Amino acid sequence: MSQTTNPLIQRKTGPEETIPFQDIEPEFFLPALEHFKQEAQSNVDAIVGSDQEPDFENTVLALETASEELSHVASIYYVLFSAHATEGIQKIAGEVSTFLAGFSSDVTLNQELFSRIKSVYESRKGIQNAEQARLLEETYQDFVRNGASLPEAKREDLRNIDQELAGLSPKFSENLLKATNHYKLHLSNKEDLAGIPEMAIEQAAATAREDGKEGWVFTMQFPDFMPFMTYAENRELRKQMYLAFRSRGMGEAATEYGQPAGTDNRPVVLDILKLREKRAKLLGYGNHAEYILEKRMARSPENVQSFLDRLVDASLPAARKEQEELAEFAREMGYDSVQPYDIRFLSEKLKQKVHQFDSEELRPYFPLDRVMKGLFGTAEKLYGLSFELKEGIQVYHPEVQVYQVSDAAGQDVGLFYVDLFPRETKKSGAWMTSFQEQGLFRGKVRRPHIGIVCNFTKPGKDRPSLLSYDEVRTLFHEFGHALHGLLSRCTYSSLAGTNVYWDFVELPSQFMENWVRKKEGLDLFAAHYQTGESIPEELVKKMQASETFRAGWGFMTQLNYATLDMAFHTTPADQIQDVEQFEIQATAKTSLVEDAPHTCFATGFGHIFAGGYSAGYYSYKWAEILEADAFELFEEKGLFDRDCADRFRGFILEKGNTQDPAELYRSFRGRDPDPDALLRREGLLKTA
């Protein structure tokens, strides 16, 4: 393939300098990466070969921009790998990952380059402002934390470890995606649908038609799985669905649950843990958690464990009481015991009994088009933003929409891509992604191109997409991440937007969920899709009353995942021989129900084995304390108080990683966060 026919190498762009997705084929990526690696290496060689005294501009800034084209092509690839992983994209995942890891090692282990970085770090030559000082600090630490100070032999060991690790995360993701797509529950008896909401049934019928089958097909995508587990009255079918979901990544060990061969993530997990530990120790840390937490607000495994212990102590008594109440209710329902596949179903039934509220009552008030208008309306009232649908922008799938975002003065804020429905080429879950970071790129400080990717309920044959309450909260959550990227006002892209400490990055996202909890926020969009009637006050009150229903259990679920994550990354790897058994032992205190044999959460725990949350899953609860405390200010001043919004925008959303996050939060709030704010909101403070 010649360079002149590869749009990635040509730096071809569409309108607004967007990515020309429709011109890009999988076979273009490796040649483009090789081309831009050579270009980046030439840039690095020029820095090293300079006869000028090292300073900020000729060393730190030059390095910041040296591999920007390589990083841009890599980001395009990973957008597709997560959101539209065709067979061709999946096939090269391991090769792309190891290629990029190799180049990263080439840079951070380059001793002549590090010598220049270190010289600027010690002299501060050319530093003119705080953002430049921050970039220097982050650059220097990045080199040290990636082995630049090690002796030569150990640097080569580190390089080899990074190469091995680079191939394992894509393998974990590939196995998980295959397992998720493989299992489908095909039903032909209408009686088996008892209790399942009509919308979920319609979606299952559409899936069956797509598969060329009669009846209904339920997949393990969340818009199918969650309604099924919450409402299906057929206990045996719930069991089948649950066991299939909970055993994803177990491969041959769980064939009785419908798992396909060749998708066993257990050896992948063990290899990742061993390599992460080996890497951390090579760099002088006791374990992977110590290495990771050095660059987090929490700072150390001891601080994280203390944090988790406090929340466990606060929520465990409530969770145990709630479980006793559920067991008593189960007996009233004729159940001899509460099994894991019963919990969502029985919890929903009990909530309906206690609060006379079924969360499905909300769905007709959440047609997707109105929710999107409400999403944008919330951003307009808080930050003066407007969103205009753009035509003519190339996208990687026809369902993706692109919006031009402008501020109150009509100035360009950025582009916003929206991709909301599940498909077999897309990972499960929801996430924010960056097509182009805000900041310096190709010689100019540019506005960002940001996207959100979700897996929501599809439209039916005769009705629009009607979102569940959880889906609406997820949409606002990811939009919070998107605002963090869109509103960034930094000079250097590596410090911009969401490139912040991992236990700070969830603050803007979880913060945005609060507007869905309040009637004033819901009134911007929640109206019946058929009648146009605004959501009734009584229904909102029932929803709010049920928000803290089984709050202890909800807390313990998240704390269970965080506990497992920390156990994996603080326990010596040679002591973890059996992933399933280790999970059982590590979560003994935080697991209130015994799971079935040959099921394992860890083999599907993409956050820590295929994402950026290793030794960091606690971040969700950490950031929840920040956002609960932050939102109390809005409750005091007004839900759409512009002064509060301007402060949040100015100190949190615009600053990226240009300052320490604790300092940014204090600047916004005027004090440190109140650690009791979250427990207050969830009604758990009395048990602390």
Features:
Neurolysin, domain 3; five-stranded mixed sheet; 4 domains; 688 residues; alpha+beta; two-stranded antiparallel sheet; 53% helix
What structural class results from the helix and strand content?
A: alpha+beta
Uncertain runs are none
End-to-end distance: 65 Å
Q: How does CATH name the architecture of the largest domain?
A: Orthogonal Bundle
Would you count the extended β strands for me?
Answer: 9
The overall average pLDDT, rounded, is: 96
Residues in β-strands, percent: 5-15%
**Overall radius of gyration:** 25 Å
Counting DSSP H or I runs of 4 or more residues, the number of helices is 28
Most strands sheet: 5 strands, mixed
Give the CATH level 1 class of the largest domain. Answer: Mainly Alpha
Instruction: Report strand order across the widest sheet.
Output: 3-4-5-9-6
Shape: globular
Residue share in helices? 40-55%
Q: Which fold does the CATH topology of the largest domain refer to?
A: Neurolysin, domain 3
Whole-number count of domains: 4
